[in-house]
Design brief:
By secondary structure, the chain is of the alpha/beta class. The protein has a single domain, classed as NAD(P)-binding Rossmann-like Domain (Rossmann fold), CATH 3.40.50.720. The chain is about 45% helix and about 15% strand. It is built from eight helices and seven strands, in the order βαββαβαβααβαααβ. It has a seven-stranded parallel beta sheet, with helices on both faces. Helix 3 links the parallel strand 4 and strand 5. Helix 1 crosses helix 8, helix 2 runs parallel beside helix 3 and helix 3 runs parallel beside helix 5. It is globular and about 50 Å long. About 45% of the residues are buried.
Length: about 230
């Protein structure tokens, strides 16, 4: 049976790859987006996850169109990189509010239906930076590290309701963001990756698909790095 799936930030990059992978498996997939246009072939819902009212409205729209959300992929996120000495408080708090508190907002709204059904899958998209740290990304790293504690707490809290909660930590992935880096910077990054290359958005999508599918039914509270070995040992 097709499940009702919601991918936040699903209009490009990793989020879009996840949406396409889950749709290819037969699920009904909706995506949220904050700006631009929604991707073709999906129910697109405009939503700023820093606004609880918009989150609630987005879920209502998805529920009316394809039923209560059975699989939530919390992917939406932002970066505002800066060295700590130069970082404004707004730059720190806005990144945490989007990446971490935004995931709290969508997860809290999703579990209503999941708890009633006594079934559900939640996947939080973190980052290798949340495990390793990264100079100039204290705000981003803090928000992504926070998802680990958040996800594992939810796994313990919701396991008795047959709801799994897992965290995927991508490494350096070929996206518009990494494409903008200089060749020298990309070469430097690859030197630190044991597999010697950047990952693809499909690498992340297939991992999420596993966690959301039958094979991931007994996996919860896990933090799965998809990073070519960059963050091993964390």
């Amino acid at each position: 049976m097709s499940r009702s799936v919601l991918v936040t930030g699903g209009n490009r990059g990793i989020g879009l790859a996840i949406a396409r992978e889950l749709a290819a498996g037969g699920d009904n997939v909706a995506v949220t987006y904050r700006s631009g246009e929604p991707p073709e072939g999906f129910l697109g819902v405009r939503c700023d996850i820093t606004d609880s009212a918009q989150v609630d409205a987005a879920f209502k729209e998805v529920e009316e169109a394809q039923g209560p959300v059975e699989v939530l992929v919390a992917n939406a996120g932002v970066t505002k990189d800066q060295l700590l000495a130069l970082m404004s408080e707004e730059d720190f708090s806005s990144v945490v509010d989007t990446n971490l508190t935004g995931s709290f907002r969508v997860a809290k709204r999703a579990v209503r239906g999941m708890m009633r059904k006594r079934s559900g899958r939640i996947v939080l998209i973190s980052s290798v930076v949340g495990l390793l740290g990264s100079g100039g990304q204290a705000n981003y790293a803090a928000s992504k590290a926070g998802l680990v504690g958040f996800g594992r707490s939810l796994a313990r809290e919701l396991g008795s309701r047959n709801i799994t909660v897992n965290v995927v930590a991508p490494g350096f992935i070929e996206t518009d963001m990494t494409a903008a880096l200089s060749e020298e910077r990309q070469a430097e990054i690859k030197k630190n990756v044991p597999l010697g290359r950047l990952g693809s958005t499909d690498d992340i999508a297939k991992t999420v698909s596993f966690l959301a599918g039958p094979g991931g039914g007994y996996v919860t509270g896990a933090v799965i790095p998809v990073d070519g070995g960059l963050g091993m040992g964390h």
